[in-house]
Amino acid sequence: KGYRLVWQAETGSTNEDAMQAAREGAETPCWYVARQQQAGRGRHGRQWLSPAGNLYASLLLKNPCSMVEAPQLGFVTGIALYDALKTLTGAQVPDLALKWPNDVLFNGQKLVGLLLESQCMGDQVHIVIGCGINVSHRPDNPQYPVAMLHDLNPDLSLSDVFSAFSLSFDHVLSVWQETRGLSAIERFHPIRELWLERAGGIGKSASVNLPNGKINGSFIGIDALGRLELDTGNGIKLIDAGDLFFPKA
Ligand code: BTN
């Protein structure tokens, strides 16, 4: 099968490179990797600080699934990232953990951010999975604490990290692709199990920032559709999108 790889010293945004390549009919699957980004994008229209020293990688896939199933790829990628980082560092839950929807944390600090984008052209769906992995830099962020891989293993190079992640991603993706043809909910079932085994903070107090305010409760897990389940003490709230925080114990 084989993946193409475009590795650049510097670019605006590897997600933008992949979206642009999709419009130009590029061959897929293809990884776009850069050592530095000038216009890295984060979730909810935020900026992703992208100094040299960290890994910026986006994968362009053509028709991997229906649009309804696309968010499942975020969970697939999270599982693959967790497994690769566990192999590279020896860390595991609860120190290394997934946080809903798509982050990887080390000791409660953000190590990886993931941004999924999609584009429909006629009957074709292009999905871009973009990952920013802090390897040897910890960009200051006023919103949350940040970690880097060199705190866990200072010998890791960017290519060690990319090799382990791309291999692990290919493995988890093939497992998920074996369920093609089943309904979206049926396909999500095994992915949900794998994700929950790697998730941090289950049963802990948490808060979620939503556009219309903040809600507090205890983090129970994710439902059959990947929505966050928060026990507010006044019923269980299901949340489609938002930022989850665990207060420092
Ligand atoms: C987040 O807000 O947590 C998601 C951050 C995703 C950043 C990555 S870096 C590689 C790819 N290119 C981008 O412009 N963004 C993603």
Automatic annotation (TrEMBL):
Top-rank taxon, per record: Bacteria
An annotated Gene Ontology molecular function: biotin--[biotin carboxyl-carrier protein] ligase activity
Keywords associated with the record: Biotin, Ligase
UniProt cross-references to Pfam families, sorted A to Z: BPL_C, BPL_LplA_LipB
Main enzyme class: ligase
Record field: catalytic activity: biotin + L-lysyl-[protein] + ATP = N(6)-biotinyl-L-lysyl-[protein] + AMP + diphosphate + H(+)
Limits of the BPL/LPL catalytic domain: 1-177
Protein name as catalogued: biotin--[biotin carboxyl-carrier protein] ligase
Transmembrane segments: none
Native source organism of the sequence: Hohaiivirga grylli
EC numbers, comma separated: 6.3.4.15
